[in-house]
Design brief:
Strand order of the largest sheet of chain B: 1-2
Number of domains of chain B: 1
Order of helices and strands of chain C: H
Distance between the termini of chain C: 59 Å
Number of helices of chain C: 1
Radius of gyration of chain B: 22 Å
Radius of gyration of chain C: 18 Å
Number of strands of chain B: 6
Largest interface: A-B, 74 and 61 residues
Oligomer: heterotrimer
Helix content of chain C: over 70%
Chains: A alpha+beta (693), B mainly alpha (554), C mainly alpha (41)
Number of strands of chain C: 0
Shape of chain C: rod-shaped
Number of helices of chain B: 19
Order of helices and strands of chain B: HHEHHHHEHEEHHHHHHHEEHHHHH
Strand content of chain B: under 5%
Structural class of chain B: mainly alpha
Shape of chain B: globular
Structural class of chain C: mainly alpha
Distance between the termini of chain B: 27 Å
Largest sheet of chain B: 2 strands, antiparallel
Largest sheet of chain C: none
Chain lengths: 693, 554, 41
């Protein structure tokens, strides 16, 4: 086995700080920010385009008719535009390092392609197409995304997921997907390529973390409409003020009107809008979630119903066998033997726990361990294993003389062909206690016989109940999806605190539930990993596929969780909300700021013609020129001051809509009303010292 | 302060009357706009108009119907004005000048009722009654129909954008609401001493031995619908300050009540139509708060405001009727500008600078406090959508109002709506001051003269129709400018609102969950009030500063 | 002559408003068409 160093790509994601702006970061972002001054780049943000046009105009005016005020305003208008592009550039920069290390994975390698006739040829990895089959041996890098069709191998996926422990990838089942750029550590596998060059998972990751091909999300577009309308209104206000002021005998210079315009249009939010979007995506990436579209991130904030698989999300994945319950006419040994045989080949923790339980019963208490350190049991010769499947909902073994099955009560009873009152009672008893009853039965010569029940105990994840309470507070209904019967499901649902559950769920049931919720106008999120989850993942408004899942699941979903942690769905919802809240809060702040700016600029503009307006100079700014410059400088500096907030997102605590609104209005509405009064006054104290103003 | 008690008393009486009757009318309005039944007289009207009353129109057809109907109205009124000399009952008045006839035609069709002329010295009974009074009914009906269509748009879902039938709405509004109430009101007004006859001028000998010409006419009937339909076009030039229109404090109270009745009842009807009465009252609460603020500010300005003359006299009595006094004049002014009525019982030009500023601000709010019949409701609802958008973002959900998501397209229409009036107003005032013909008609110089022009364009762009006075607006320049502002200020918003209604009607409804922001709570009421004030305030601060503010500080 | 001017201007204004209705309606139709063919996300 070749041991590879953990890839450097894992580094930046964990090491980078959370939204603090360092001078180094700024310096790094500066060239990008300057490039973004190109007016064509600004077309997407009309607010900033207006500022830039204003800056060009004041430059021309200042060249033609130089004055201290003119140059001051000109410089700060240019800085206003620059701070806006800087915010975007900083936001993008946070993904740059990660993108660079991901790019390293894409260096062209040669791949061993197997032709349909079975020959193996060396081709460059960039010429692989969908459907090609390549062989990858230990130590080699997998040349592209695909599905393992032969063999089993341990794979180092740290380059993509940041998780250094190798994972097993094998053909068939739900662990068959491999990602291009990851490295095979042992054995050899054949992989059928599933993506065209340039469209691989890593390619998408790069463009996501760089924010280069960021599509603007629906709410961002709607907000942009509102901001553009405000801009138009204030352009009209300033343009019409020119003749109106002249008529009133208070002729204004174009320079001052431009300064007023830039202060009034919502530059703060306009400058930070795209940075907020990029940072939102980035926050997801930091939690190892890749969203295939920004739309999905926003939809996550709107989710009404959360479908959560019980196993692994609500309960610790592993259930433990704690008890064997016999039915009439069955000896303890018979049941123990059947349970043991049916579980010997079952490598799941549940299966092993059955083996451990039986061992403990045989050897007496004290030798039992939750791990599988017990003795090895021999599988009798001539045994065929019957794997668990979602449709039969049973697993077991076929021995030469009999068949043994264990599984869900209804499925096993159907297999046996008859029921049993005592058994039903035992099943109920286990279910009511929140455990999972696993019915064991055998069949000899086509005659079925129910033996008893294995009591599997579910352990609810610590802390999950509180998470569900938070979800309820923000108005999200949680639905637990489980293959268990209704009684068991109810007991666990109650213990975990979910609002609803779907018991004995088949993939079709899941899909039907999603459709039903969507018909009612609700947005649904779910996660899944298996191929049979794919239709539901595609139907859900937010479908999070586990990275360990199949290619089909990953393609159906609109997000991929690299950690394969289903609980993260809750985080994703919160990130989606935080993204919207940050935009709303800064918009409110930006508009509220205008009030103070009016108080600074308008008296300054007209006080010469109407001395009585000095009453409105509530901040007691030292001179009209200083007042105008202070407002312009404040307007520019507030952008820089808010970059960290835009990148980090505003603090979000799950609570009711009204409570959230009250809090944010207080902080960003009232705060936005008051802050500029203080800020402009302080700036005025400094700026009034400048000679010539 | 013996003035204070009567001032509060008349407000209390007004509030009491409204509280008692608005819910009743609201219920009646809701059935009017959603009921299936047709009255016999309505069936007759549909047969004459050749419309199928049960065929719901797509918003586009609805909008084109509104436009077509109004175009016919403008052209007909224009013809009546230009051909007056050939018409019976003209009292010997000749044709109106072309620009004046056009201004008047647009003014009455847009529910503005800006009057550049003296009613008693320019128009005969036929034009007053068959032209202007008819438009008083139908222009109010158009506004209410559009508001009803908007409310239905919010109430409906997934229906492809059909919002109701314009002609059904219009006929029902006139037949079931405006005519009956106006009839009762006219009778009561006559009982209170308002004139109602068809006689011409009557020459009287006065006590001092001189003679005086008294013009009679169908005053009470026009007065009733003038107030009820928030029209405001008076029979006489001095409008409700004339003793024949408004003889006593009691008739004054009744007229204010009639002005406020339908705008508030429309809000209640809206709540019923969307199936949640609380939504209506929340919107009504915002209107009440705004109106209350305007009333308080104006009353303060007139009774105790700055200015040496009023303080010496103990109140600003200049230009006010002694029958009413400052308080009733201030209240009337706030009511008439808060709605888009424009009737006056005192000359706003003679108000203190601050008082003139507050009534101007009441109009600049966009006529939403409580606004014109219908237009006040849809104007406020558009602002509610803006508020919901901001609030929605702040709670982290795609914004929705009454279960309708607000996306880019809705915001586009809403933004265009919010833009329209400020742009018209500001461009209007800029044009007015830029040409010699604008300031030529101004009586005063300096900030007060500017206020006179600002008031005129504000009144026109917001379809209010009240005049500040002091501005001689009967010139081709002003008639044309104000006509354009009135026309665009009325119909561009209507088209946008109907488009929005169609979009809402076509959209699916999202059920409310506990994550949805409730839009009937005090928090939302406060936020909507704030948005209305800030959105408007920010736009008009500079022009207000150069007019009323500068003047009141001097 | 002036009469003609005012009448014509009125008609032009209303035709303009009708065109605005048409434009808004067309945009709406186009939007519904594209969103029905494109996946909701």
């Amino acid at each position: 086995m070749t041991v590879t160093e953990p890839s450097p790509a894992a580094e930046p994601r964990t090491a980078s700080s959370s939204g603090v702006l360092t001078p180094a970061q700024l310096a790094e972002a500066l060239p990008g920010a300057l490039r973004k001054l190109d007016p064509r780049e600004l077309l997407a943000t009309p607010v900033m385009l207006v500022v830039e046009v204003g800056a060009v105009a004041t430059t021309v005016l200042s060249v033609l008719d130089p004055s201290v005020l003119g140059w001051f305003v000109t410089v700060w208008l240019w800085l206003t535009v620059l701070f806006g592009t800087l915010a975007e550039s900083v936001a993008e920069g946070r993904g740059k390092a990660q993108a660079a290390s991901l790019r390293a994975l894409q260096t062209e390698t040669s791949a061993r392609r197997r032709t349909p006739s079975g020959e193996v040829e060396d081709v460059p990895s960039t010429s692989l197409h969908v459907g090609d089959v390549v062989l990858v041996a230990a130590g080699e890098r997998i040349p592209g995304d695909g599905e393992v069709i032969e063999g089993v191998a341990s794979v180092d996926e740290s380059a993509v997921t940041g998780e250094s422990a190798p994972v097993i990838r094998e053909s068939g089942g739900d662990r068959s997907a491999v990602t291009g750029g990851t490295t095979v550590l042992s054995d050899e596998i054949a992989v059928r390529i599933s993506s065209e060059p340039g469209q691989s998972f890593v390619d998408r990751m790069i463009s996501l973390v760089e924010g280069s091909e960021r599509q603007r999300t629906p709410n961002e577009l709607a907000l942009n409409v509102l901001l553009s309308a405000l801009t138009v209104v204030f352009v009209v206000v300033c343009v019409t003020l020119w003749p109106v002021a002249s008529y009133s005998g208070a002729r204004q210079s174009v320079l001052v009107l431009l300064a007023l315009l830039v202060c009034l249009i919502p530059t703060t939010i306009g400058a930070l809008l795209s940075a907020i979007g990029i940072a939102g995506m980035d926050r997801l990436v930091r939690r190892n979630v890749l969203a295939m579209s920004g739309r999905a991130v926003e939809a996550a904030g709107d989710i009404d119903v959360l479908l959560l698989d019980k196993t692994g999300t609500i309960t610790l994945g592993n259930r433990y066998a704690t008890e064997l319950l016999r039915t009439d006419g069955v000896t303890e040994e018979e049941l123990a033997e059947a349970a043991l045989l049916s579980s010997l080949a079952d490598e799941t923790p549940e299966g092993r726990s059955v083996v451990d339980l039986v061992d403990g019963l045989v050897d007496g208490p004290g030798t039992t361990g939750a791990g599988s350190g017990g003795r090895r049991h021999e599988v009798p010769r001539g045994t065929t294993l019957v794997e668990f499947s979602a449709t039969t909902r049973m697993s077991g073994v076929d021995l030469p003389d009999r068949e043994i099955r264990k599984g869900a009560a209804s499925a096993v009873k159907e297999w046996v062909g008859h029921g049993d009152d005592l058994l039903d009672e035992l099943v109920d008893q286990v279910s009511r206690s929140g455990g999972t009853p696993l019915v064991v039965a055998e069949s000899r010569d086509g005659r079925g016989r129910l033996l008893g029940v294995i009591h599997l105990k579910d352990v609810v994840k610590p802390g999950i109940t509180e998470r569900f309470e938070e979800m309820r507070a923000i108005g999200i209904r949680t639905v637990m999806i489980t293959g268990d019967n209704a009684v068991t499901a109810q007991a666990i649902a109650k213990e975990a605190g979910v609002d609803d559950f779907l018991a004995e769920a088949t993939p079709e049931d899941k899909l039907a539930l999603i459709r039903q919720e969507q018909e009612g106008g609700r947005l649904v999120a779910m996660c899944g990993d298996g191929t049979n989850d794919a239709p539901a993942l595609a139907q859900a408004d937010v479908g999070v596929a586990m990275n360990t899942g199949t290619v089909a699941a990953k393609e159906a979903g609109n997000m991929v969780d690299l950690d394969s942690d289903p609980t993260k769905l809750i985080d994703i919802v919160e990130i989606g909300k935080q993204l919207l809240i940050t935009r709303g809060a800064l918009t409110t702040f930006s508009v509220a700021n205008d009030v103070a700016k009016y108080f600074a600029i308008l008296p300054a503009m007209f006080v010469v013609a109407f001395p009585q307006l000095d009453v409105l100079n509530v901040m007691r700014l030292s001179s009209p020129e200083s007042a105008i410059v202070s407002a312009v400088v404040f307007n520019a500096l507030v952008i820089v001051a808010l970059i960290p907030l835009a990148l980090r997102g505003v603090t979000y605590r799950p609570s009711s809509a009204a409570a959230l609104l009250r809090r944010n209005l207080l902080v960003y509405g009232v705060g936005g009303l008051l802050a500029p009064f203080v800020g402009i006054k302080l700036l005025d104290l400094v700026i009034s010292l400048v000679p010539g103003l | 302060m013996s003035e204070v008690l009567p001032a509060l008393g008349q407000i209390a009486a007004l509030v009491l009357l409204l509280v008692l009757t608005v819910p009743l009318l609201a219920r009646h309005l809701a059935t009017t706009y959603t009921g299936e039944r047709h009255l016999a007289v309505e069936r007759l009207a549909y047969r004459v108009l050749r419309v199928a009353p049960d065929a719901d129109q797509h918003w586009r057809t609805y909008a084109l119907s509104v436009l077509g109907f109004s175009l016919v109205g403008v052209l007909a009124l224009y013809a009546l004005g230009r051909l007056q000399q050939f018409l019976p009952l003209s009292l010997g008045f000749g044709a109106l000048p072309a620009d004046g006839a056009w201004n008047t035609a647009v003014s009455f069709v847009t529910n503005t009722n800006w009057q550049w002329y003296s009613g008693e010295a320019a128009l005969g009974h036929l034009v007053q009654a068959s032209g202007l009074t008819v438009q008083n009914f139908v222009s109010a009906g158009v506004g209410m129909s559009v508001a009803a269509a908007f409310a239905r748009g919010l109430a409906l879902a997934d229906n492809g954008g059909r919002v109701g039938n314009f002609f059904t709405d219009l006929v029902r509004t006139v037949v079931r609401v405006l005519l009956p109430i106006a009839l009762v009101a006219a009778v009561v007004l006559v009982l209170l001493g308002v004139v109602q006859n068809l006689s011409g001028d009557r020459v009287m000998d006065t006590l001092t031995g001189g003679t005086q010409v008294l013009t009679g006419g169908p005053v009470a009937s026009q007065e009733a619908i003038k107030e009820l339909g928030t029209n405001g076009g008076g029979f006489y030039n001095v409008n409700s300050a004339h003793p024949f229109e408004n003889p006593s404090p009691l008739s004054n109270l009744l007229e204010m009540y009639l002005i406020l009745l339908v705008p508030f009842a429309m809000v209640g009807a809206f709540g019923r139509i969307v199936g949640d009465k609380r939504q209506g009252w929340a919107v009504g609460a915002v209107m009440t708060v705004l109106l209350g603020a305007v009333v308080a500010a104006t009353t303060w300005a007139e009774m105790a405001g700055p200015g040496s003359a009023p303080q010496l006299a103990g109140g600003a009595m200049e230009g006010k009727e002694v029958r009413f006094g400052e308080a009733a004049s201030a209240l009337f002014a706030a009511v008439t500008t808060g709605t888009s009525t424009g009737a006056v019982n005192a000359m706003h030009d003679s108000f203190t600078a601050a008082g003139g500023g507050t009534v101007m601000f009441a109009m600049m709010l966009g006529e939403i406090a409580p606004g014109g019949v219908g237009s006040g409701l849809y104007g406020m609802l558009v602002l509610a959508v803006v508020t919901v958008f901001l609030a929605g973002l702040m709670v982290g959900r795609t914004p929705e109002y009454l279960g309708k998501k607000i996306s880019q397209r809705e915001m586009g229409l809403v933004a265009a709506y919010v833009l329209t009036t400020p742009v018209l107003l500001l461009v209007g005032i800029a044009v007015a001051v830029s040409f010699d013909a604008g300031p030529a008609g101004v009586l005063n110089s300096g900030p007060h003269g500017f206020s006179e022009m600002l008031y005129a364009v504000t009144s026109a762009a917001n379809n209010n129709g009240s005049a500040f006075g002091g501005l001689t607006s009967g010139t081709p320049f002003w008639n044309t400018l104000l006509g354009v502002l009135m026309l665009l200020g009325r119909f561009v918003p209507i088209v946008l609102v109907l488009a929005l209604a169609g979009r809402f009607a076509a959209a699916r409804r999202v059920p409310a969950g506990s994550g949805t922001l409730p839009t009937h709570r005090p928090l939302f009421v406060a936020l909507l009030t704030g948005v209305a004030l800030v959105l408007v305030g920010l736009t008009y601060v500079p022009v207000l500063l150069l007019g009323p503010v500068v003047e009141s500080l001097s | 002559m002036t009469d003609l001017l005012y009448v014509a201007a009125t008609i032009v204004a209303f035709v303009g408003l009708a065109l605005l209705v048409g434009v808004l309606d067309r945009r709406e139709r186009r939007a519904t068409r594209t969103s029905s063919t494109r996946d909701a996300r």
